[in-house]
Structure formats: structure tokens, C-alpha cells
Structure prediction request, 579 residues.
Amino acid sequence: MLNIFREIISEVIRESLSHDEQSPSLHDILIGLPNENRGDLYTNAAMIFAKRIGANPRELAARICDELLKSDFVASAEVAGPGFVNFNLNLSAWHAVINLPIKYKNNYSVCNIGKNEKVNVEFVSANPTGPLHTGHARNAVFGSVVANLLQKIGYLVTKEFYINDMGNQVKSLARSVYLRYKEKLGYKIQESDFTDDMYIGEYVKDIAENVVQKYGNSMLDKEEDQYIEELSNFSIKNVMDNILDDLDYIGVKMDVFTSEKEVCTSGTLEEAFKILTEKGCIYDGVIDKPKGIDIPDWEPRKQKIFASTKYGDDLDRPVQKSDGSNTYFAGDIAYHLDKIKRGFMKMINILGADHNGYVKRLQAAVSALSDGKAEVSVKLYQLVNFLENGVPVRMSKRSGNFITLREVVDRVGRDATRFMMISRDHNVMIDFDFVKVCEYSMENPLFYIQYAYARICSVFKYSLKIWPEINDDMLVECSKCCLTDKAEIDLIKLLCFWPDHVSSAAKSVEPHKIPYYLREIAAKFHALWNAGKLNTALRFIDERDKDSTMARLALLKATASVIEDGFAILGITPMQEMR
RNA sequence: GCACCGGUAGCUCAGCGGAUAGAGCGUUGCCCUCCGGAGGCAAAGGUCGUAGGUUCAAAUCCUGUCCGGUGCGCCA
Prediction:
């Protein structure tokens, strides 16, 4: 619907542009809801484009008004202030909007801004050394919703998990499992046998049990260098199975898992080094000591370094340690080359805010590898603070007493967890209060939206008892002339902007806009519900008047459809009743 | 020292170039002959951390500055 008006406005601007200038795309034209008493819709396009055209904004606005008025949908239009165009629609325009979500269902918000371009969304990518915890929960939900949104606007999305199955942490895991394994077989093990880098969660004992099942006591007499490889692989497999279950538990399904080890042994790493060396941005040198922080045992060390400052980083970064082995960064460079080779020119990585120092070097590497053709956008999300009725829950990773993703979901449910994790801008810390998240109150927007949906379902249940024959096609076809009240039109306006909001949330990678908007829709619905109590003419069901009931049911159907679409994006199941 | 993020109503947060800055909670006062009151309506409450700058227009963009969080050589 809004695009009809965008076309008209765009046409006016196009006529005024000289031929060599690019005409504005429809997405560049803002149409919004103005404040009360200024009309139904407004656009600032005249002011935005006046400068480029060299025209007077008010004159351009006047021309836009003239063209808008030619549309059957437009009742009136006027220039206001420095060049705003405010315009009002005929009721028939709003009534036509109602049909769209009913007819197109989840496709109502689909568009093709992405033009089927491939996008890789890498998220979670937890170390395979233990179960997912709370930080991963935010990561998982954020990543999956971003993927859903990008899909909506026409990108071909691949959801990917990078398995860090190399390096010391994997060996530590194997050593930890080995200790528990010996314990299972009757050896006395002290807590002090576990060094700081080792893992002491209960899951380590579970893996050890599996080792006993599979290997019996055949591992017992082996030296570390004999068991470490076998046990690492076995442990990683166990932990990854667990992580997959955890992801499933929170409603996340990955498309691709890529192993760091495979990337690093497939020749991609050498290829990446070759490309970067040919570009002259790999050299042997010494990193300067960072200023302003104390590193007591600092000493200069010669190592292989990537000149990431050439591509906007603050410091050059080592790709090899002084003993000649590769750093984690080296593997990650190879991994991103692998993504590029698989055809991803657009990549999104979801990382915790504690990785902020890593962003620039990664972008530098991708830029260098692809001559600036590929781009990786890193979305950092802030911490989640867990509270128990306002009191912070203490966590310590070392003691193994951190909260796992599974515990959170067990406690408050999958939908509540997902909603809470996605309801804030990723740049903002979340206070996740176990008590409040479960409350049935206004402090819990999820409940409020679910309640709206359940009420709509309830109305349909009731009305179908009276007229069992009513179906979606009839709701699309029926006359909506009786829908004239402000409360009704207000709700329709919100439904009208739904596709706009989805694409704007997707383009800016800001999924939290979805829950906020759904809350607004729910609020308008609840207002309408209550309006029917004061004014019986506004009640949804009038047993003596099937026609006006159908019109109202159509509005409710459209509302329910948008809520369903929004929940699908968020990965949440709408509830038909709240009991 | 440098980098990234935040600083908007008593509290938790939206808004991120547009016309009188919004919502929930909390406070105060109203609304059930109801298709689910687990709701709704209204009032009070703000020089958008601060100082400059750009613009017809700044909470929004730029620069400085203050406060809070995070990170900064062979951890991955």
C-alpha cells in the first residue's frame, strides 16, 4: 500500500532530475505517521530531494501533492511547514490494507531488497569445551533472528557455526576428561590435580563415563602424548552433540558447521598466507608493547605479523607465535577466505562485546583477501545480567557454577528466553530477571502480546459457534464499510506499516524493533477491545449483524496474521489460550 | 594511552536528520448489564551527560570533554 504512494512521489522527483542522475529507489522515500491532527501520513521527500534537484522544497512538495491527489486512495493533501506533505486517505484505502495480511499471511512482510544475494551469518561458534551458557543464549537468539530477517528481505542466508577444535583449550578438555576417567576407574583424584586451564563441570564426568563405555581401561596406562589426540576428538564429539541439543532446545538450527582443524589442514591457510604475502602485508617483526597497561613480564619477540593497520586497524597483529606455530587469528583468516571462496561477499559475525578488539583486524583481513570486494560486518552484543527478583545471580566460570543455557530455558521456557534476549538493542546490556520474565504483567511484554493473540483466538472461537461457515476468503471479500472508528483505523495503520518495519529492522540488523512493534500492535488491539465495552457498536461480534461482524473479524484476522508473522521471525509460538 | 559500547521522565528502556521527544513500571484519579479486568482511559513527571560546530531543521551528524562498562603481545 505505502509503495503505491512511494511510486507517485518517486515519479515526481524523477521528472525533475537531470538524466544522468540516479532516480531514488522506493526505499529512500520516507512515509511516516505524523503527530495527531496532521493527517494520516506524511513524507519529507520534498525537503530531502529539493537540494539535489535545485528546487524550492515547498514548490516540489506542492507538485507531490498534486500527483498524490490523483490517486483514488488519497482524500486530501497539503504542504506544511518547510516542505512536509501531509495527506489523508479515503477509508477505502485503509479497508484495502486489511486484506493484505489475510491473503499473504507470512509473505505480507516479504520483499526483495536482498536480490537473492548470499549472506553468511556466523554465530554462537562456542568453544567445544562445555555446554552453552547464558552469553551463548543471547548470541544464538540474536543470530537466528537476524538470519530470519535477512531471509524476509530477500537474501539467501546460511547460518554457520565455526568449531574451534584446535588449540590449547581442546587439550585441556582432554586432560580434564582423562582425570575424571581415571577417577571412574577407581583412582583417587584431588581437586588440586586440576590446573587453572582445566574444566571441572559435571559434564566432564559424563564424557569420562562415555570414555569408559567405549575404551574400557585401555587408556589407563597411556602417556599424555598417546591419549591426547584420541581423547580430544572423542570429547569434542561429545560436547558438540551436547551443543547441538542445547541449540535445538532454544530453537536454533544451523545450516553449516565448519571445523577450524579442517580449514587449517586443507591448504586454505597456506593459500591465505600466500595472498597476503603477495600483497606485501605480511612481515617478520616485533609488536610494540601496548601503552597505558602493565604487562610485568613484557619482552619483545620476533614473529610473523599481518599489517592490519594498512586496512584500518590500530595495531598490526601477529599471525604466528614466536615458536612459528599459527595464532588463532591465522586460522580465522583462512576460515574467512574459505567463506569468500564459497561465494559469500556479505558476512555477518555475531560476537560478544568482549571481542571488540578483534573486529578491526578481521575486517582488515577480509578486505585484504578480497581486494575490498567482500565485507564482514561484526555485531557485538553486550552482557546479560541475571537477577533473581532484583538481586544479581553470582556466577563463576572457574568453579563451574555458571548458568547454562539449558538451565535458563528450563526455568522460564524457550519463548520467554528468546523474547527477552531479543527485546533489546544488541549494544545495550540486558537485565534478565528470572522472576519478572515469568510474570503475567505489563513488565512482561511477551505476555501482553500473547494475551492479545489469545483474545483474538477467543473471539474467533465464539463467532464460529454462531457462523461456522466463515473463512478467510470471505473475510477478504466482505465489505468493511462499518470500520470507521479512530481506534479501528489506528490499528489498521500499524498493520499497514508492518512490512516497512520488518525491512527496516532487517536492513539495520536491529531485530529488537520487531518485539517493540508487536507490542504497539497489541496495545492498539487491547484499546479497541476495551472501546467495545463502553460503546457496544464497536464490539467485535453482533449476533444480529453478520456483515459488520465479518468486517471486524477481518481486522482481527489481519492483526493475528501480523502477530504470527512477527513471532515466526522471533522463533516464538503464539498461544491460542493463556490458561 | 588507544579502541568499541552506553549516558533520554523517579526506575527500565524506545526513538538515531524532521514538525509539540515516546512506552512500561512506580505515583494519583477514573472505567466491568464484558466476545477472557491477566485489560482500558486520564493526570503528573524531561533544558535528551556537558561545551562547541554543521544544517532550513539535531536527542539523532561532526569535534572536544566528563561519567559508567568492555577490551588491548604466542586465549581461542
The longest strand of chain A covers residues 156-163. The first helix of chain A runs from residue 2 to 16. Chain A has a mean pLDDT of 92. The domain at 2-89 of chain A is CATH 3.30.1360.70 (Gyrase A; domain 2).
